[in-house]
Structures are given as structure tokens and as C-alpha cells.
Amino acid sequence: MIKKIKGTNDVIEDLYIWEWVEEKFRNVAKNLGFLEIRTPIFEATELFNRSVGTDTDIVQKEMYTFEDKGGRSITLRPEGTASVMRAFVEHSLDSKGLPQKFFYIGSMFRYERPQAGRLRQFHQYGVELIGSPLPIADAMVILMATESLKAIGLSNFKLKINSTGCEKCRPRYKEALREYYKPILAKLCDDCQTRYDKNILRLLDCKRDVEYAKSAPNIIDYLCDDCKSHFEGVRRLLDTLGLEYEIDPSIVRGLDYYTRTVFEIKYPSLGAQDAILGGGRYDHLVEELGGKPTPSVGFAAGMERIMIALKAENKLPSPPIPDVYVVTVSEGQRPHALKISRELSKTFSVDVDLMGRKLKSQFKNASKEGARYVLVVGEDEIKSGTYTLKDMSNGNQMKLSLEDVMKHLEKTL
Ligand code: HAM
Fold first, then answer.
1. DSSP secondary structure letter of residue 284
2. For a tag site, which of 29, 250, 270, 332 has the least CB within 10 Å?
3. d(Cα 45, Cα 142) in Å, to the nearest integer?
4. What is the four-CA torsion angle of 291, 297, 302, 306, rounded to 10 degrees?
């Protein structure tokens, strides 16, 4: 038997939950004026090297990179921001006016060690607000994040925000971190020791060396005046919106493009993989990719983790059931049953026996599927043009013409 690749999932019985969540997210995004964008699943490797950053875990260890038959280095996208910004620059979307607001839902690929909530092919719902440097853009994106989660009924989540400063103030902060960690370097885990030189900020979100991070210098004390007032501006807007949040200096994010605001939404009961959503401001990415300076901000949520959270909160929609199950008394009525099913399916969800089951077992099947009504198509019914419609919720039966069946269903479903 050929099995699925490690770290991938088949979505079968849960698909209706995915569709429901996606519809809710699309509604939130569209109602706030965001346009859906679909970019390719693979891109030139250089795009992720330049945007996500060559010293990040994603680029160093996790990318699905291969050479195609034309000798080009191709990578399955590990995230969506880089592709959206590549598209923004490539199609000169700034000429349409700023801001440009996009959202996407799609597969991402990272070669990580699979565990609950961590896959190698996973899905993100992401949002990118391109072109505004103002705190209101950060607040809008954070609001979209929380509104999206509330729209699917989640409530036990925690919003954590931080600022990572800018090219003016961050170097000073990194220096302070180096000073702080230098004498204790030998006590840190292997990952932290390697990150000390290349990516010192990541020492703050290490899951093993938490205690050292707690006493490390706090970036908020190192922000320049502009970054400080930007962060205060964001906080004031979040307060106005009544959003609860915690300032968490350990939120530094694992991608290099961030500047100023960063945030994550944690769902504490998810255990080790408790970040259901992460994002922040990235003011220089468009320039890195060859465009004009275009400050931007966005987030992405992990769909698989959201599914786990929904199940934990027991906030699942009801599974789809047929409105009507069409049964036949004998074989001769099957063509007629199929024609009736075609008519009914223009308005309602319909199932019809396709296995040649006996009448009794067709009823059993209808009830197993949870059908609300059963429509009986027998010889007498075809002759008289009136059909027996059984309401499975109370057992009541009615004899109705097809037109009246439709009216009755419209009224009661
Ligand atoms: P990220 O934090 O790398 O950010 O990923 C966002 C979310 O994707 C995470 O919070 C998590 O829920 C989910 N996720 C990440 N890796 C996996 C995995 N291996 N398995 C399952 N879920 C995963 C970004 O990707 C940025 N592009 C977000 C962003 C958009 N920033 C600005 N705009």
C-alpha cells in the first residue's frame, strides 16, 4: 500500500469544517475590503532567501527546495507573505493606489519534525495590508485576526504583542543582548549557541532557555523615539477597540523581515505548538524585492491548529445532511427517481439510492445519513403524480404533488 508522505494530512470527514471556517474567514476579510489573492505554490528559491532570511530556521533547515528540469532552483512556499509581495512588485500594484489589501488561504510547506499541530504540508489563512506606515494599519490587521477567530466561535485565545524596533534601534538592543548572554553562553542549548552570532533575537523565544530570557534586557527599553511612539499608537488603538492583549518581550518571530510591531495569538491548551497565528509589520520587504519603500503589515493563521482549537472548544458546525432522500419501491422507478432528484437538487441537498437496496434498507440508510425527509417514488406515485413525503423528525407522512413537495421543503427547511 502506498501511504501519504509523513507530515501531510488527508482531510476527509472534517472537510465541511474546513469549508465553514474558510467561509467565515473570507467574510471577515471581504467585509473589511480585502481582496483574495492566489499565488503559485512554488517560487524561485531566491525569493525566500531574500525575504524570510538566510539565517532563519525556515531557510536553513525547512525548505522543500529542488532543481527543476530547466536547472532552476525552486522552493515550495514555506509561507505566503514573500509571494504576495513578489506579486505586488511584479505587477506594479502600487500604481492602483495604496493601501492594497490582500488575503489568501492555501498550503505551505516546511520540513519540520511532525507532531500534533505541526505538519510538513499545512495551511494558512493570511492577510497582508500593503502601503501604510501608520499604527492604524497594525491595529486593523490585529483586529482582523481577533475578529476572524471570534467569527468561528473561538474565545480561549491570548493576544501577545511586542515591538522589534527598526534598523536604528535594533542594533543597540542586539548588542545589549550579546552582552547579557555572553557570560552564560556555555549554559545555553545548542540552538541558542548557534543563534548567538547570527540571530540573537531568537534566543528570547527558545522553549528550553526560558529562564534566561526572562531576565534578558527588554527591547521596549531600547526603542528609538519613533518606534516607541508607533508602538504606543498601536496600543492606544487596541485599547480603544477594547482588545485584550499582553506585551510579551519574547515575541520576536522566526522570520527576518519584521520591523516594529510583532504579534502572536496563542491558544494555551494546544501545548507545544500553541501559536495559532502570527504576524507583524515588515516595512522594508518590498524594497528588498526591488520595489519602492512600501511599509506593510500582516499575519497568517495555521488552519490545522485552528481545527484543533475548535475541537477543544467544541465549537464545530453540524455536519451536512441531505434535505431529502429519494427512495424507490422497485427497479422500474429508478429513472423517474433520478429525474426528481435532479429537480430537487436545484434547490435542496438530495441523496438517492444508488446501490439497488431494498425499500426498508433505503429508509435505514436515509436515517443513518440523518436525512430530514424521505420522498417515496413508487409506481402509484408516478401514475398519480403525488408522492409520499415522510418527515423523518416526527414520522408524519404527506401525499403531495412535486410542486407542493418543493413548496413544503422551502417552507420548513
Ligand atoms: P509563521 O509564524 O511562520 O508566520 O506562521 C504563521 C502560523 O502558521 C503559525 O502561527 C502556525 O499557526 C502556522 N504554522 C507554521 N508552521 C506550521 C507547521 N509546520 N504546521 C502547522 N502550522 C504551522 C508566517 O508564516 C508569516 N508569513 C505571517 C505573516 C504574514 N507575517 C506578516 N504577514
1. S
2. 332
3. 30
4. -150
User: Which single residue is written with the C-alpha cell 490582500?
Assistant: 102
pLDDT of residue 23: 98
Give the helix ranges, DSSP H, for 158-217.
170-181, 190-198, 210-214
Q: For residue range 268-321, list pLDDT tens digits in order.
A: 989 889 999 999 999 999 999 999 999 999 999 999 999 999 999 998 999 999
Instruction: Decide whether any atom of ligand 1 lies within 6 Å of the 304 Cβ.
Output: yes
Give the global pTM: 0.96
How far is Cα 205 from Cα 51, in angstroms, rounded to an integer? 21
Q: What is the pLDDT of residues 46-72, one digit of tens each?
A: 999 999 999 999 999 999 999 999 999
CA gap 118, 168 in Å, rounded: 35
209 has pLDDT over 90: no
Query: Which residue ranges form the domains of the chain, and what is each CATH number?
Result: 15-169+223-313 (3.30.930.10), 324-412 (3.40.50.800)
Of 281, 277, 285, 303, the C-alpha closest to 82 is 285
Q: Which residue's C-alpha comes closest to atom 21 of ligand 1? A: 118
Residue 248 Cβ < 6 Å to ligand 1: no
Q: Which atom of ligand 1 is nearest to the CA of 114?
A: 19
C-alpha distance from residue 184 to each of 199, 206, 207 (Å)? 17, 15, 17
For ligand 1, whether the C-beta of 371 sits within 6 Å is no
Lookup: cell for 229 = 511612539
